[in-house]
């Protein structure tokens, strides 16, 4: 059984007990978060809904963190123009508790 959920403008395929990293959510560690399922597969039967199927996906916040550093380097040749920036994207790691 799996479900497709949407959060942070992205869609994720999730199953029970899966750890998934999503865009940062404002939730404390250990808090339960609910998502509407866009699509659910159960025993080979698909249930697709717009905007939802009536199925809720419950996840628990495992940790909040920041991703690996991404270095952005821009320059213009022969002009002595250089700019170096770093970026670390914040994320929330969720454990899927139940689908249904």
Secondary-structure topology with pairs:
Layout: E1 2-7, E2 10-14, E3 19-23, E4 32-42, E5 45-48, E6 56-66, E7 70-76, E8 81-87, E9 90-99
Antiparallel strand pairs: 1-2, 1-4, 3-9, 4-5, 4-6, 6-9, 7-8
Describe this structure as you would to a colleague.
- This protein is mainly beta.
- The protein has strands at 2-7, 10-14, 19-23, 32-42, 45-48, 56-66, 70-76, 81-87, 90-99.
- The strands form 2 sheets. Strands 1, 2, 3, 4, 5, 6 and 9 form a 7-stranded antiparallel β-sheet that branches.
- It is elongated.
- It starts with a strand and ends with a strand.
- The relative contact order is 0.30.
- The mean pLDDT is 94.
- Please state the structural category: mainly beta
Mean pLDDT: 94
| H/E series | EEEEEEEEE
Which overall shape is indicated by the principal axes computed on the Cα atoms?
A: elongated
Helix percent reads under 10%
Question: Number of helical runs?
Answer: 0
> What's the N-to-C terminus distance?
10 Å
- Spans of at least 5 consecutive residues whose pLDDT stays below 50 are none
Strand proportion, as a percent range, falls in: over 45%
Q: How would a crystallographer describe the biggest sheet?
A: 7 strands, antiparallel
Number of strands: 9
Rg, Cα atoms, Å: 19 Å
